[in-house]
Amino acid sequence: MILSRCGSLKNLTIERGHVIRRSREPITQADIDALDAMLSPLSQLEEFKIKYFGYSSDEDARYSLSTEDTEDTSIQLHQDPRPKDQLQFPRSLTDRVRSLRSIALDGRPMDWIWPVFMRCIGPGLRSLSTGAFLEAGDVDQFAAACTELERFEQGNTSVTHAEVSKLIISCGNHLKHIKINGLHDEDGLQRL
Amino acid sequence: MVQTLAEHSNSLEVPDLRNEVCVRLADLQALESSESCPALRKLLTQNIEGQGAGVDPRIDAALAAVVEFHTDTLEEIRLACGRFGHDGFEVGNTFIRACASLGPQIREIDAKAAEDLDITLVDVLYRKHPRLKPVEQLAEKSKLWKKEWKPRYDRLIEERIAKGKRERAMMG
């Protein structure tokens, strides 16, 4: 209601849960629809930050994510999810994400949102901060989509040295700020 | 990684490398040029290789060279080591002497004084830079710690808190 009157808003942070008082309610389609309703009227929005602290879903019951995008209709990451774990991101929401200059996903877990946001990263993005556990190929994908990134922050150890190097080369002289919390051990366990 | 940054990121201002991101001698040497990251404002690293048996003179010299090639831009230097950067990274005379050549924009140098550090170099550093925040692990052995550097630390922290409050108030 309030946000619908803030069409000129450029910077929005949404918080749910706290690092020491995590949200017990799982993310549902109603949350995605509410997010869409919040962002839809904000045509001037440039910076969007989510701080979410919840509980990880069971390994066997992770979210199945999909979008209404015509060019990318199936981000089906996990097989046979329970019906309540199926989340569909409306086209209006993914379009809004594509127009952002700055995205920050802070907290965990992020498996309900990162796979979709990561695919929506466009050439206009200048700042990306994520605590999501990146899977093999993620960095390649957004490094190719966004070559003018000025700021990159990775909050865990899910990236490899080779991936970060590739991102650095891809961004070249645009990159001004890089924060890497740790590196995935390329000689250690196989990553997802 | 630092070598890749030095080679490809000419606009880099802030490399913030935590935990397991190990910075080696060759990484520091890659920044020993005015053409490597000429806009470098902050140097933040928690895991510099070579600490353990006191100051490694090669590392100390390499850090000093990085400072000397970025005297007009560096505002903040934070060096740590150990798991999750919990231990102070020891620096020696060469590094602290180089820090004295930094411009007036420098605000923080967070590192630990080596056992044999000439503590008068720290006094010279703080005298030359009145806006530089004193750090206990670097300056506590100075005779001026209680009389000058700790009061300055308290004052600068108070100013920083007040500034933060003003900014939050302006944000509503």
Polypeptide structure, described:
The complex is a heterodimer of chains A (192) and B (172). Chain A has 192 residues and is an alpha/beta fold. Chain A is 23% helix and 21% strand. Chain A contains five helices and eight strands, in the order βαβββαβαβαβαβ. Chain A has helices at 29-39, 91-98, 114-120, 138-145, 161-171, and strands spanning 11-16, 47-53, 64-67, 86-89, 102-108, 127-130, 151-154, 177-180. Chain A has a six-stranded parallel β-sheet, with no helix packed on it. In chain A, helix 4 (138-145) links the parallel strand 6 and strand 7. In chain A, helix 4 (138-145) runs parallel beside helix 5 (161-171). Chain A is globular. The model of chain A is unreliable at 188-192 (pLDDT under 50). Chain B has 172 residues and is an alpha/beta fold. Helix content of chain B is 42%, strand content 13%. The mean pLDDT of chain B is 92. In chain B, the strands form two sheets. In chain B, strands 1, 2, 3, 4 and 6 form a five-stranded mixed β-sheet that branches. Chain B has a two-stranded parallel ribbon with strand order 5-7. Chain B contains seven helices and seven strands, in the order αβαβαβββαββααα. In chain B, strand 3 (76-81) and strand 4 form a beta hairpin. In chain B, helix 3 (57-68) packs parallel to helix 4 (93-99). At the A-B interface, helix 5 and strand 8 of A face helix 1 and strand 1 of B.
Question: What topology emerges from the helices and strands here?
Answer:
The complex is a heterodimer of chains A (192) and B (172).
Chain A: E1 11-16, H1 29-39, E2 47-53, E3 64-67, E4 86-89, H2 91-98, E5 102-108, H3 114-120, E6 127-130, H4 138-145, E7 151-154, H5 161-171, E8 177-180
Parallel strand pairs in A: 1-2, 2-5, 3-4, 5-6, 6-7, 7-8
Helix pairs in contact in A: 4-5
Chain B: H1 2-8, E1 14-17, H2 25-30, E2 42-45, H3 57-68, E3 76-81, E4 87-88, E5 90-91, H4 93-99, E6 108-110, E7 112-113, H5 119-128, H6 136-139, H7 145-170
Parallel strand pairs in B: 1-2, 2-3, 3-6, 5-7
Antiparallel strand pairs in B: 3-4
Helix pairs in contact in B: 3-4
